[in-house]
């Protein structure tokens, strides 16, 4: 009987310890030293105050007057480098851009990754900085995965004239289940609760506070939602559900064959042909 109990308890204990280690890694800050913008770019490093003691670091690339500006927000455990090629393209198009490291990423402050909820404070600070620097310009934002969730949770989002969401999870329950089943097969769905139960302990958040699908209902700017049709981390039906929850005006762009990847890198000509005119139409000031 003791051997049977040990045979049952040891694997269970191993699974619990593994889930705790995974929870620690997933929420641990993803630091990186990035320094000034690449030498070939016309831009500057910026450090934006977040709250009373925090800071969001980034790069600002100026554009042509009247063309608008775009806030670029990277994915989980990434940093502003993930958005650099988009910034290069936008500058060629005449649009200004601000690339920031979200809280707990890159060179920005923060003690835990919170899957968009606390990262939203960095988005708010960045939008405030852009509005101060470019008072007469229309503002847009492109948020990838975590960046899109952070954008939806931001309080200053209503100030935007255009919103692009790429590969954004609808709920944290979906996000955890999808990623575990992708890696572990059907057993992942059974293990997901072991990670989700750690949210209140590690972050002081519960699953109901991490539902971008609820926040998207309050978007008032023109919205474009894009995702890969082969994305296994945010499955296409989940993207369709996010789109269905959003108010008009809205556009849905399925990227054929793409997984949970950088959509700009995956389909550069199609991405730029689709988003370029869409952004210009919403951010360019009309001639006087």
UniProtKB/TrEMBL annotation:
<dbReference type="InterPro" id="IPR052920">
    <property type="entry name" value="DNA-binding_regulatory"/>
</dbReference>
<dbReference type="Pfam" id="PF12146">
    <property type="entry name" value="Hydrolase_4"/>
</dbReference>
<protein>
    <submittedName>
        <fullName>Alpha/beta hydrolase</fullName>
    </submittedName>
</protein>
<dbReference type="InterPro" id="IPR029058">
    <property type="entry name" value="AB_hydrolase_fold"/>
</dbReference>
<dbReference type="InterPro" id="IPR022742">
    <property type="entry name" value="Hydrolase_4"/>
</dbReference>
<keyword id="KW-0378">Hydrolase</keyword>
<dbReference type="GO" id="GO:0016787">
    <property type="term" value="F:hydrolase activity"/>
</dbReference>
<feature type="domain" description="Serine aminopeptidase S33">
    <location>
        <begin position="68"/>
        <end position="176"/>
    </location>
</feature>
């Amino acid at each position: 009987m003791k051997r049977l109990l040990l045979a049952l308890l040891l694997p269970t204990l191993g699974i619990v310890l593994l889930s705790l280690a995974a929870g620690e890694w997933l929420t641990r800050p993803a630091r990186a030293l990035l320094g000034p913008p690449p030498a070939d770019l016309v831009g500057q490093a910026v450090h934006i105050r977040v709250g009373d003691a925090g800071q969001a670091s980034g790069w600002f690339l100026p554009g042509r007057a009247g063309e608008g500006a775009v806030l670029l927000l990277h994915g989980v455990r990434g940093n502003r480098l993930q958005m650099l090629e988009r910034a290069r393209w936008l500058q060629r198009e005449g649009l200004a851009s601000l690339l920031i490291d979200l809280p707990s990423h890159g060179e920005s402050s923060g003690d835990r990754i919170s899957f968009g909820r606390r990262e939203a404070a960095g988005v708010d600070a960045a939008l405030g900085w852009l509005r101060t620097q470019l008072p007469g310009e229309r503002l847009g934002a492109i948020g990838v995965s975590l960046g899109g969730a952070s954008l939806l949770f931001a309080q200053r989002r209503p100030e935007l004239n255009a919103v692009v969401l790429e590969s954004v999870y609808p709920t944290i329950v979906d996000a955890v289940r999808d990623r575990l089943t992708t890696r572990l097969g059907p057993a992942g769905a059974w293990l997901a609760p072991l990670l989700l139960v750690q949210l209140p302990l590690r972050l002081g958040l519960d699953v109901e506070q991490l539902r971008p699908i609820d926040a998207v209902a309050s978007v008032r700017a023109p919205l474009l939602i894009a995702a890969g049709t082969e994305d296994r981390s945010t499955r296409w039906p989940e993207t369709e559900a996010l789109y269905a929850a959003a108010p008009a005006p809205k556009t849905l762009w399925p990227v054929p064959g793409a997984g949970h990847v950088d959509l700009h890198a995956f389909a550069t000509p199609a991405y730029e042909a689709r988003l370029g005119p869409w952004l210009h139409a919403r951010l360019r000031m009309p001639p006087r």
